[in-house]
Structures are given as C-alpha cells and as structure tokens.
UniProtKB/TrEMBL annotation, chain A:
Recorded family membership: Belongs to the ATPase epsilon chain family.
Pfam annotation, one family: ATP-synt_DE_N
Keyword Membrane: yes
Organism: Candidatus Magnetominusculus xianensis
Described purpose of this protein according to its UniProt entry: Produces ATP from ADP in the presence of a proton gradient across the membrane.
InterPro entries reported for this sequence: ATP_synth_F1_dsu/esu (IPR001469), ATP_synth_F1_dsu/esu_N (IPR020546), ATPsynth_dsu/esu_N (IPR036771)
Protein name: ATP synthase F0F1 subunit epsilon
The keyword Ion transport appears for this protein: yes
Cellular localization per UniProt: Endomembrane system
Subunit structure: F-type ATPases have 2 components, CF(1) - the catalytic core - and CF(0) - the membrane proton channel. CF(1) has five subunits: alpha(3), beta(3), gamma(1), delta(1), epsilon(1). CF(0) has three main subunits: a, b and c.
Coiled coil: none
TrEMBL record, chain B:
Keyword Membrane: yes
Encoding gene, per UniProt annotation: atpG
Name listed for the protein in its UniProt record: ATP synthase gamma chain
One Pfam family in the UniProt entry: ATP-synt
Keyword annotations: ATP synthesis, Cell membrane, CF(1), Hydrogen ion transport, Ion transport, Membrane, Transport
Summary of subunit composition and partner proteins: F-type ATPases have 2 components, CF(1) - the catalytic core - and CF(0) - the membrane proton channel. CF(1) has five subunits: alpha(3), beta(3), gamma(1), delta(1), epsilon(1). CF(0) has three main subunits: a, b and c.
Length: 87, 293
C-alpha cells in the first residue's frame, strides 16, 4: 500500500515527535487497537503503555503516559503527559 | 564637602553593586532564554489540546458537564502567580495591585474568595494584609514541571466539581515582549472553549465523523481537567518568562544607574582632590611669602 500514516506525539514539556509510519498499535483504555492507513476518524484515551509503530518491517516503540489520541485523515495525533522513545 | 576618603569608599561600594547587578542581568538573560524555550515548547501541546477540546465540546450540551457549566458565582477561587525572589522591578507589584483590584470588585458583588498564592511574594503580601490564603505553593519556579501544575489543578478541579467553588480566575503576568509584561486575569473555570477556531467544522455534524472510544462524554470529562491543568502550566511558564524579563530590565537599569553614579562621584572626587591641592598650594605660597617679608 502506498499510503502512509503520520504519527505525531506532543507533550507539554516540549517532547515532540513526528514520523511517517505504515502501521500503529496503541494501548487504548478499552483495549489495544491498531491503525492502518485509511482508518476512519476517531478519538480515544490511551492507557499508560507502549505505542508500537512499524516502518516497513522494523517496529519501534514509544512509551506514553496518560495520553489521548486522535485519528483523522491518516494523521494520528497523540497528546501525552510524557513520552519517551524506547531504545 | 565630603572628604576624599569618603568619596573613594562610596565609589568602591557602588562599583561592587554594579558588578552584582551586571552579573544578575546576565544570569537573568540566560534564564530568560531557557524559560522562553520551554514556553515555546509547551505551545504546540496547548494549541492541539485546545483544538481537540473545542472540536468535541462544540457539539455537546454544556449543561451535562460540570466543568463547562456556568453557575451562579458564590465563591471564586483566585490563583495569584508571583515570583519567589525580588529585584525584578514592578513585576510583583503589578500582579498584586491587579489582584487587590479584582478582590475589591468581587467583594463588591458579595462574592466570597478563596486564594491560592504561588510564589513567596504573594504569600508575604497576603500575610501582611491578613488575607486568609487557602494554599501556598513556593519554591518550584527553578524547575517547573508539568506535575506541579497538575497538582495545583487536581485539587482545584475537585473543589469545583463538588461545588465548593464556582469559578476559577488566575492572575499572572502576561509576557508580551522583553520590555513589556502586563498583568492579566484569565478565567479557567468554567471552561469556555471557542466553538470557532477548532480543527474544522462546527455544529453537530462534527461528531458524526468521529468514533469515540470510550464515549465522547468520558473523553470530554477527561480532557477538560487536562485543559485546565494545561492552562495553569502555561500561565506558570509565562509568568516565569515575564519574571526573568522584568529582572533583566530592572538589572539593566540598575547597571545604568551605577555607571551614572560612578561618573558623578568620580567628578566629585576629582574636584575635591583639586580643591585640596589648591588649598595646599595656597598654604605653601602664603608661607613662603610670610617668610620673605
């Protein structure tokens, strides 16, 4: 699939992160969910946990705390209290 | 005419003061830059959060959310943001004056006040005038963390929800430019999201395009406190930037004044020195003349 997602993570203390990704999995309050390009618009709260995203076949992880995610037009916006890239 | 030694001592002491103010100015300039950076870094989050919030709340019924709900003002909570340290010009005076004005207005309307003092200057001020303060926060300006704002907000939101307060106003110094900071009051509770200016769309159509998980009510109920704490955090950051800017300018002025004073004193010193030489010469000439007669 040629289409990609834009993942944007922002925190109040200035951590900001933007990446073009193919696929994303996030820990929603009502269970983990995945987002692929073309997903319908939705808004959800996230548990403290790890967001996993895939670029090609490599997957990477970011830990977020007390976050909200908004998906609209293949753009995922995550507002987190704090976030950290896992090595 | 003060004697030479007095003037010399004064010049030394003024020079030393000048060194201190100069150092403080430079420290403030560095801190200002840091504070400004963290203020700018916090901006995207605030804006997006506000967008998100306006987006959802434009389509819901205000009545069913306590944080959006307007009610009669009986008790108003005031957060007053001042600095912990002085030597920053009119920074604290402006804020406290504005607070006093606001307090008078509210008292005139027969509204009870509950005050949260942030910064030593606010604490001392209310203490001096015997105003009861509900809570004091001091000593966290050095390293402002988001958790600090959350701590302040959590408690206030709770008392708002159980209706022991009906409105929340924050008084802080708004940072306009390095040269200009103006005291500002902002009403944080009840929350007033603007229905325009959101990420797009108003009215009921908006929500149809979104799936909420959990329900929109739950999300909104969680986002509203977030918004309040974020606004408090922003005000704290802004106040800190204003403080450093005010201090830098105050110190710059102090610097200018010491230079001027040193100039004046040096002139006085030289005059005094010359006068004493002239008197000495006159004495010698007078003595010589007396001898030759």
């Amino acid at each position: 699939m040629a289409e990609k997602l834009t993942l944007e993570i922002i925190t109040p203390e200035g951590f900001s992160f933007t990446e073009t990704v193919d696929e994303l999995t996030a820990p929603g309050t009502l269970g983990e969910f995945g987002v692929l390009p073309g997903h319908t618009g939705f808004m959800t709260s996230l548990e403290t946990g790890v967001i996993t995203y895939k670029i090609g076949s490599t997957s990477k992880h970011i830990t977020v705390k007390s976050a909200y995610a908004q998906v609209a037009n293949d753009h995922i916006l995550v507002l987190a209290d704090s976030a950290e890239i896992k090595g | 005419m003060p004697n030479l030694r007095d003037i010399r001592t004064r010049i030394t002491s003024v020079t030393n003061t000048g060194k201190i103010t100069k150092a403080m100015q430079m420290v403030s300039a560095a801190k200002l830059r840091r504070a400004q950076n963290s203020m700018l870094a916090a901006r995207p989050y605030s804006n997006k959060l506000f967008d998100m919030l306006s987006y959802i709340s434009s389509a819901v019924d205000r009545e069913s959310y306590p944080l959006l709900n307007l009610r009669e003002r009986k008790v108003v909570e005031l957060i007053v943001l001042t600095s912990d340290k002085g030597l920053c010009g009119a920074f604290n005076t402006n804020i406290l004056k504005e607070t006093a004005r606001l307090m008078n207005e509210l008292k005139g309307e027969g509204i009870k006040l509950s005050i949260v003092a942030v910064g030593k200057k606010a604490r001392d001020y209310f203490h001096r005038f015997g105003v009861p303060v509900r809570k004091t926060y001091i000593d966290f300006y050095k390293n402002v963390k988001y958790e600090d704002a959350q701590e302040i907000a959590a408690e206030i939101i709770e008392s708002y929800t159980n209706e022991s307060i009906d409105e929340l106003i924050i008084v802080y110094n708004e940072f306009k430019t390095v040269l200009q900071q103006t005291p500002k009051r902002a009403r944080l509770l009840p929350v007033e999201p603007q229905s325009t200016g959101g990420t797009g769309g108003t009215g009921d159509g908006v929500l149809d395009r979104f799936i909420f998980e959990p329900s929109e009510a739950e999300i909104l109920n969680a986002l509203l406190p977030k918004y309040v704490e974020n606004q408090i955090f922003r005000a704290i950051l802004e106040s800190r930037v204003s403080e450093e800017a005010a201090r830098m300018i105050a110190m710059e002025n102090a610097n200018k004044n010491t230079k001027e004073l040193i100039g004046k004193l040096t002139l006085q010193y030289n005059k005094a020195r010359q006068a004493s030489i002239t008197t000495e010469l006159m004495d010698i000439v007078g003595g010589a003349e007396a001898l030759s007669q």
